[in-house]
Specification:
8-stranded mixed β-sheet, alpha+beta
């Protein structure tokens, strides 16, 4: 009788582990989707507010504020977030950085070389993996609709330890606008932006 009870308990534990493993696989499948990032970008462009004004993509590229730059509040999937836009004046080219949340996006990077990058406002960062453009390109049509007319090259970077993905758009040599670093990283909801102040 005791042996049957123990066996039954083990069967239940095994079933729980299998269910959790299936849940984890489903979670990873949902969050290993570049379309999440495209939707965050769409949400930002349609709802961003800086001093009660919505900025177009072209206006964002004209930002002159150095890091930490201009802060924007935007709604993504009905949740308020904060993003930032700033200008880095490099020795060769200027670069506008736009940082947004990644909506839980996670990518399992394939084994390969990790490189150290110089990030405009953070200095050296380790653990970045260059990603094939073809792996992401079909899933970000809205990002491409804004960037393709202006930029001639792109580099894609992912850092699994930081859970960050960067799209580094490079302008043609004769163009006058700045390069663009579009970064997606873990973010926290900005619910404090919805709290009303009280008269004193």
């Amino acid at each position: 009788m005791l042996a049957e009870a123990e066996a039954s308990s083990l069967d239940e534990q095994f079933a729980t582990i299998v269910i959790r493993e299936d849940e984890m696989k489903e979670y990873l499948k949902q969050h290993h989707d570049f379309r999440l990032l495209d939707q965050v970008f769409i949400d930002f462009l349609s709802s961003n507010r800086h001093r009660r004004r919505n900025w177009t993509f072209e206006q964002l590229l004209s930002v002159k504020s150095p890091s930490p730059g201009k802060e924007f509040v935007y709604d993504s999937s009905g949740v308020p977030y904060r993003g930032a836009v700033w200008l880095y004046e490099g020795s060769d080219n200027d670069q506008v950085s736009l940082k947004l949340h990644n909506d839980g996006f996670a990518y399992t990077s394939k084994p390969g070389r990790r490189v150290t990058r110089h990030i405009s406002n953070k200095g050296q960062q380790h653990g970045w993996v260059p990603m094939p453009w073809g792996e992401i390109q079909p899933f970000i049509p809205e990002i491409l609709a804004c960037t393709k007319p202006l930029y001639s090259e792109v580099k894609v970077w992912y850092n699994s330890s930081l859970n960050k993905l960067d799209l580094e758009f490079i302008k043609p040599k004769d163009a006058s606008m700045p390069d663009l670093l579009l970064g997606f990283e873990p973010g926290r909801p900005a619910y404090d932006s919805q709290i009303k102040a009280h008269c004193i």
